Amino acid sequence: MENKRLLEVDLLNAVSNFFKALGNDTRSQILWCLSQGELRSSELAEVLEMTPSAISHQLTLLKHLNIVSSRREGKNQVYSLADEHINRILTSVVEHYQED
Fold this sequence. Notes:
There is one protein chain. With 100 residues, the chain is of the alpha+beta class. Helices cover 60% and strands 14% of the residues. It is built from five helices and three strands; from the N terminus they run ααβααββα. A three-stranded antiparallel β-sheet has the order 1-3-2. A hairpin with a 2-residue loop joins β2 (68-73) and β3 (76-81). α3 crosses α4. The radius of gyration is 15 Å and the shape is globular.
C-alpha cells in the first residue's frame, strides 16, 4: 500500500472546523446570502427572520474561523465571505445537489 500523507494537525483542525460550521442550517444560510454580496448583520437578521443577537453570534463564529470578514461602515459592520475560495466551495456544493 502506498504511503499516504496526512494533514498536519493544525490544518486538519481548521478544515474540520470549517465543515462543522457548514453543518449548521443558520450558518449555511448566512454564507449563501453573503455569496450574493455584502450585507449588514441587521439585513441578515431580517432575511433570516432571526434576532440580531442570534445572527451576531453566528457571524462571530464564522469570522473567528476566517470564513467571513467584516468592515466598518459608519455604525454598522458589513459582512462578506472571507475570500473567493469560500464562495467556490459553497457554490460547488449547491450545484452538486441541484443536479439531482
